[in-house]
Amino acid sequence: MPATITHAFLGDIDWRLAVLLTIGDPGARDRGVTHHPHGRAKRLRLAVGIFLALVALVYFVTETRACFAL
Q: What is the pTM of this model?
């Protein structure tokens, strides 16, 4: 937590990506499975995996652009 606060004050956090990662909460899979226990776990895992892969892709593109903009 102290590191997060420090980076927030320094302006090192990309809040758009932080929000995307918060939406893709890993615990959401377990909560979703609890509400739909009849065979939907595989589909939910796939959806969360695709979402996190998209977040990683957005992060990669954003960071790559930032590196070449210097």
A: 0.48
